[in-house]
């Protein structure tokens, strides 16, 4: 399959009062055509920052993309000038966010907000854009499309707004859709609707999707390929069935075990002890070592690299490099 | 939890040493703000100059010396002399004492009034709130400066002894300033009441006294400190304006405002700039420094910035 | 039957909807509309529902953080909504609340030790000299360390803050703890820690929980009995295993089938509900669920279904079940 996007050695830093935070630290992955890549991790692991970096939303002086390349269909997004980047953003790469309410302008009618990218990117005439907007609204499963187009964001529920966001995102038939926790703020029954819809769109249009979430259930439902992040690094990646059935990294294993699963009640949940390290105090060790039950001396001193561990799966863990270390 | 306890053991020795203190954390943050620190430096310098400076001056008696009228700055009179032959530097320092005292005292008074009334209005709401806030609204609908002018004119009309005028000016400034503060404190109180930790206090069954003094006030103090600081600058300015118009503190008691008034004609303005530049510069430097420092404090203390 | 610890009978809580300058009441949001719950000592009752179902309002009305509109709340046989404010204050330590957002439930300017110990002092439950010892004990029980006592909330992570909130409730030795979405603001790995803390504390202290959550997998893990709410009404109550094995109400079925399960390529029969949750200010007639119910028939729109025993303490409000 053709590669849509290839990210190599991406690093993003933020500057805070207390010091420099490496929010994303040297990560590489690719997204193929028609594929759904899920980035999963806990808060602060850098999954959202990855998306922001791709979209060029990390701005100085708060932070900056400090290294690497983001190759999108042969063009490095990090080296593009503002105008060409704007042409790609919203047109070929679209993004939806966790809070639909805050990404929509509260004083502009829904319909006009959908029309805007159509007029800007596709040079549509106003009337045609309006027609297309109404089409899009009904396409995302909202009845009374005409009426909704003339209403303001605050008149709609969270689930409806997220549908509108999706309508805006798909309006220019993007090649890649980045969805950052698109259903986290929604109720489960609404989440199910939205996920179903996203999947259908992906299948019918052949676009690729990069889905960022903390919910392993959502990952299992949506992903083709999974990337697990921890403290700004990729700790494990692999094809979804493989990764869920045979997780290699102790963090992935812990994460999978500690989530209560419906229909599989245990008396005590497995829990990963301790907490995520302070991003300001990351040493050269494996960042997971003080929470890991397999911690070895080498884990405290050096950070493991991401290595192939079989079945197309990769993990960054010294457990799988033992041989090398002892030589 | 094995790894957890291991972790805590590692951290313990260091952790024991530093008992965390919000004051120290804020101070450390403030020290990072170079501008605020220099503002604070200027304020301290002005205070030291005005309150300790005169002890080193040979001219504190302010004797009228016709031989030394309107002399330009020279070696014996560093900033020159005024129309009555008095040393300008000494008078600037003495005036500073009055101006700074008026600023500080009226700030304390208006903060006390404003905080107390605002807290009562915000915490008890109902009738007390209605009465206090309507009075505050009334005071705020009248522009401050004209109100002060009227007060000042009345004082002159009633022939209040000049010694008392300084205290009455403080009182006047507080009366004009408290409504703004009270409003701020009340608003803060109302929003704090709705915060979840106040609901937690209800669930815990805490007494009103503890809710007020243990939970609400500590959250208002930072705001008060910031407001109070910025208020000093405003008070100094208002006092200067009043005194400049001869409605505040009256000569011979010097203040920065009435010193500038002494140069209130074209001849003195053009030919004797040492008469008005030193007090003018003092007002300017003090007020700017206080405001810069206050802004720095706000950045550090404002709970909205707190994570 | 033994005496219930908590008995909620036909509880109603309506919030007035006002309009215009004069604040004329034009209607009511029926946040809680005739809810009955009975909690035996030592059990964990899970209250499940989506946003707008009124589950949090139930918790808050039981604790009298808001006044009820109708019905009664009996705690150990005492109707707490008839107590005077001072009597209520004395009863407060017996029933505690854990908040969803541990960030906002702690006063940022109060040291953790003071936050945990102050209620003991204020109620005179123990001499001043012993407070510190008890606070340390509570911290320890909740998996925190003694040196945390003098710190401020902002120096802690989300999970630790939730532990502080639990310690603050625990130190009063309450009979009932109402936990309002206590883990939904936490990360998965931290969630597991807190869930385990809840069950460990229950075993060691014999606590009774009213556990309010939207997450069915968490509720299944912790609760012995579960009630499902929709738009202010209880649609189904049953023992845990019974509810998960044989849900009777279509809403419960849909809810169960909508929860994503972390097993890839799992083929499940899913009931995807149509549309959005209606506004509680203007709930549908008859059965409130009929607008989204895939099985709705004519009677559903016309008549309010009775909440009845379908056998073995499995209650359901549906015309078809």
From TrEMBL, chain A:
Keyword Nuclease: no
Localization (cell): Cell membrane
Gene3D superfamilies: P-loop containing nucleotide triphosphate hydrolases (3.40.50.300)
Residue span(s) of domain ABC transporter: 5-256
SMART domains hit by this protein: AAA
PROSITE patterns, sorted: ABC_TRANSPORTER_1 (PS00211), ABC_TRANSPORTER_2 (PS50893)
Entry keywords, A to Z: ATP-binding, Cell membrane, Membrane, Nucleotide-binding, Transport
GO molecular function: ATP binding
Keyword Membrane tagged: yes
Topological relation to the membrane, as annotated: Peripheral membrane protein
One Pfam family linked to the record: oligo_HPY
UniProt family annotation: Belongs to the ABC transporter superfamily.
Full protein name: Dipeptide transport ATP-binding protein DppD
Protein source organism: Paenibacillus auburnensis
UniProtKB/TrEMBL annotation, chain B:
Pfam families in the record: BPD_transp_1, OppC_N
Alphabetically ordered keywords of this record: Cell membrane, Membrane, Transmembrane, Transmembrane helix, Transport
Main location: membrane
InterPro entries the record matches: BP-dependent_transpt_permease (IPR050366), MetI-like (IPR000515), MetI-like_sf (IPR035906), Oligopeptide_permease_AppC (IPR053523), OppC_N (IPR025966)
Signal sequence, start to end: none
Segments crossing the lipid bilayer: 35-56, 98-123, 135-155, 167-185, 216-237, 274-297
Ranges for domain ABC transmembrane type-1: 96-294
PROSITE patterns given in the database record: ABC_TM1
Location in or out of the cell: Cell membrane
Membrane topology: Multi-pass membrane protein
SUPFAM superfamilies per the UniProt record, alphabetical: MetI-like (SSF161098)
Cell inner membrane keyword on record: no
Chain coiled-coil ranges: none
Domain of life: Bacteria
Record family assignment: Belongs to the binding-protein-dependent transport system permease family.
Name of the protein: Glutathione transport system permease protein GsiD
Organism encoding this protein: Paenibacillus auburnensis
Automatic annotation (TrEMBL), chain C:
Claim: Chloroplast is one of the keywords in the record: no
Residue span, ABC transporter domain: 6-256
GO molecular function (one): ATP binding
UniProt-listed CDD domains: ABC_NikE_OppD_transporters (cd03257)
SMART domains assigned to the protein according to its UniProt record, in alphabetical order: AAA
Keywords: ATP-binding, Nucleotide-binding, Transport
Key word Transport present: yes
Family stated for the protein in its record: Belongs to the ABC transporter superfamily.
Protein name: Oligopeptide transport ATP-binding protein OppF
High-level lineage: Bacteria, Bacillati, Bacillota, Bacilli, Bacillales
Gene that this sequence comes from: oppF_2
